[in-house]
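Translate sequence into C-alpha cells.
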Amino acid sequence: MRWRLALACACAFAATGATRAADEPPPTKYEIPFRLTDTKHVLVRAKINGKGPFNLIMDTGAPAVFITKAVAKKANAELDSKGWTNFDTFELEGGLKVGKPRGRVEDLFQLDGMNGLGIAGVELHGVIGYNVLAKYRIQYDFTADKLVMEEIPGFEPPALVPLGTKGGGDLQAMGPLMKTLAALMGIKPNFETVPRGFTGVLSEEDGVTVKSVFAGSPAEKAGLKPGDRIISVKDTDVSDSQELLAALAKAAVGAKIPLTIKRGNTMKTLQLELGRGL
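Result follows.
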C-alpha cells in the first residue's frame, strides 16, 4: 500500500512539474542583422545610451563590452576611476535590448591598428564580449544576413576577472605605431562606404512573403504589411529570399527603391526609402 501511495505522489509531482514547464513562455529569439568585415569579423550595429549606431565586433575572447573613448564621449558614458561604465541602454539592431551591461572604455590596440590601416573596410567602434554574449544561444549562418540570438533564462555569466595593466604597455603601443606606419606608407583608410540599407522586414526563409514588419521602420512607412508578397525590387524579379537579399545588397542608406508587391489578388507598387536601422 505504501509503495502505491508513494508512486501516486511521485506521478502527481511529475505531472505538476510538466504543467509548470508547459506554462513557461518559450525563450525569446532575436534576428540580428550582421555582416562580415573585410577581415572576416562578425560586425553588428548597436545603440548605446540612445546614441549611434556604432559598429561593434562580436568576440567571445573579449571578457566584456569594450568601446572606444570617442564612442564613450558620444554616448555620454560615465566612467569610474578604473575606466569601467554601466550603460543605461544597450540595443542591437534587430530589437535585442541588453539590460545595462557593464563595459570598458579603452582604445584597444587591435581596433586602433585596423582603423589606422583601414583593413576592416569599415570603422570599428568596439567589441561585444563574453559578459553579454554568454547570456544567449547564438546561431551563425554565413550564407544569411542575420544571426539568431536566443535568451538563456536564468543564466548569469560568472563575474568578470579584473583586468590588470601590467605587461600590456608594449601591446597597447602597437595601435598608435600602426597609425604612424599607415601615414608613412601613404595608406588612407576608406570608411566612405555607407552601411547596408535597413528595411525593417523579416521575410520567410522559403519565398519572399513578408513575415513581419518592424514598427517605425522604412518598410512600415512604405506601407508594407505582413502577408505581402514581394514580386520585384526596382525592375528585378525576386523569387526567393536570396534573390531579395542580392537585389538590396548594394542599396545604401537613403536609397529610394520601388517594390512591386502582391497583396491578396491586387498588385501594388510601393516606394521604399532605406534607413540606417538603429
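Note: The longest strand covers residues 51-58.
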